[in-house]
Amino acid sequence: MSEDCIFCQIVAGDIPGRTVYEDDTVLAFLDANPLSPGHTLVIPKAHHERLNDTPADVAGAVMSTLYELVPAVESAVDAPASTVAFNNGEEAGQEVPHVHGHIVPRFEDDGGRPIHALVTDRPELSDAELDAIESDIVAEQA
């Protein structure tokens, strides 16, 4: 628990939230500044700043909850689709340093864009550079 974290304060009940799901590990609530009707955040109750800092079992519980909630959120607001995403670190746009997955219901002509529209200056990588990145990622897992 982090005293400075708004999400930890919601978990503790110090700040009200519109809870849509709760168990011993995970809390899900409506975003106070929604991108669309039904925009829901799914967080671990324990404070972890990034996915990289989150124990595998807790990350799995968050993902399982996202999996279960996506159809419920879409149905509740009559959305034909949703964007499910994490901003993992400040440079990625994470505004609250507590792991949180977003369920953003999407509607036809909502002005939203696909994930590939996040970055406008895409790198031009050669096959050799892609091969090196592939090897580095595999090596990091060893």
From TrEMBL:
Supply the CDD domains for this chain. Answer: HINT_subgroup
Q: Which SUPFAM superfamilies match?
A: HIT-like
Pfam family, any one: HIT
Output the Gene Ontology terms for molecular function.
catalytic activity
Task: State the InterPro entries in the record.
Answer: HINT, Histidine_triad_HIT, HIT-like, HIT-like_sf
PROSITE patterns in the record: HIT_2
Q: Which residues form the HIT domain?
A: 6-113
Segments carrying motif Histidine triad motif: 98-102
- Which residues carry out catalysis? 100 (tele-amp-histidine intermediate)
One GO term of the biological process aspect: nucleotide metabolic process
PANTHER family in UniProt: ADENOSINE 5'-MONOPHOSPHORAMIDASE HNT1 (PTHR46648:SF1), HIT FAMILY PROTEIN 1 (PTHR46648)
The protein here is known as Histidine triad protein
- The protein's organism comes out as Haloarcula japonica (strain ATCC 49778 / DSM 6131 / JCM 7785 / NBRC 101032 / NCIMB 13157 / TR-1)
